TrEMBL record:
This is ABC transporter permease. Keywords: Cell membrane, Membrane, Transmembrane, Transmembrane helix, Transport. It is found in: Cell membrane. Belongs to the binding-protein-dependent transport system permease family. It comes from the Bacteria. One of its GO terms (cellular component) is plasma membrane. It is a multi-pass membrane protein. It comes from Microvirga brassicacearum. The keyword Cell membrane applies. The keyword Thylakoid does not apply. The chain crosses the membrane at residues 36-57, 108-136, 148-169, 175-194, 237-258, 285-309.
Length: 318
């Protein structure tokens, strides 16, 4: 009889890594089937890399006054007869290269968006866990506050919080403080969606047998909520966070366009659009057009990823 090769039981019983499971799973298969999602992911990745590598890709630092020359102000794009190198997309009224300003503005817009989503997700998940697990008066208070906030548009809440904070701290804030105020304003505008979603999931999960077993062995409520319930509600939270990232970027751009966001010395995409809007009817269309196109493309790409992720993580739609 020929020798039969034996497989080490320890090797055969070893579970595949999470990376292998991901590429073998339904989510990756759904991603590969959707050409539109792949284009959106590629575009989003390009925006993120452009923001991260702005210092290497930009012809100039638009935040450094020493690199700006008023003689180069309002130059049209390079393909125009009056365009000049290296200003591919032209310059604004201060002589800033539009491409450089967009890359650095992307960095600020995405930073505000990520921090705002992180803050709102942390606050909403915490309140949702407490409301769903504890119930009673805690649930009533948190949900009534959420119901009241839902009656107001998110941008109005952000404007109100931004105005109150600036009135307390003073109108002349530096760029760092202004960024922090924007993050708090946006975060307090979007926490309700996380809280309501997590609360509903917690109320379903806490009646299951594994939660009862965790209570029987004496685990404290905090450990049960964080170690056992929270991992089971990450799917809906991830979808909300992806979609809210686009909403946070739009909210920051709206606040900056209205003059309550980032200053002109450290412009985000919304600030660049506000600056360019002043010169739109004088013929310098490129000052507002290219930042507007960049903002629209970024938000559209993120929204498409959020829609795909919502469908991919919903077993009823597979």
């Amino acid at each position: 009889m020929s020798d039969v090769s034996r497989v080490d039981p320890a090797v055969s019983s070893r579970s595949p890594s999470w990376l292998v499971r991901f590429f073998d799973g339904d989510v990756w298969a759904s991603f590969k089937r959707s050409k539109l999602t792949m284009v959106a992911a590629t575009l989003t990745l390009m925006f993120f890399l452009g923001a991260l590598l702005a210092g290497f890709l930009s012809p100039q630092d638009p935040f450094d006054p020493a690199q700006l020359e008023l003689m180069n102000s309002r130059l049209p794009p390079l393909w125009n007869a009056e365009g000049q190198s290296p200003f591919l997309l032209g310059t604004d009224e201060q002589g800033r290269d539009i491409l450089s300003a967009i890359l650095y503005g992307l960095r600020i817009s995405l930073l505000v968006g990520f921090l705002g989503v992180a803050f709102s997700a942390t606050l909403g998940i915490t309140l949702g866990l407490l409301a769903g697990y504890l119930g009673g008066i805690t649930d009533t208070i948190i949900m009534r506050i959420a119901d009241v906030q839902l009656t107001f548009p998110a941008i109005l809440i952000a404007l109100l919080i931004d105005g109150v904070v600036k009135a307390v701290l003073g109108g002349n804030l530096d760029a760092g403080t202004t960024l922090s105020v924007l993050v708090v304003s946006i975060g307090l505008s979007f926490w309700v969606q996380y809280a309501r979603t997590v609360r509903g999931s917690v109320m379903v999960e806490k009646s299951k047998d594994y939660i009862a077993a965790a209570r029987l062995i004496g685990l404290p409520p905090t450990a049960i909520m964080i170690k056992h319930i929270l991992p089971n509600v990450t799917g809906p939270v991830l979808v909300i966070a992806t979609i809210n990232l686009a909403l946070a970027v739009i909210t920051e751009a709206t606040l900056s366009f209205l003059g309550t966001g980032m200053p002109e010395t450290m412009p985000s995409l919304g600030t660049l659009i506000r600056i360019g809007n002043n010169y739109l009817f004088s013929g310098e269309w490129w000052i507002v057009a290219f930042p507007g196109i960049a903002l629209a493309a970024l938000v559209l790409a993120i929204n498409l990823l959020g829609d795909w992720l919502r469908d991919a993580l919903n077993p009823k739609l597979r």
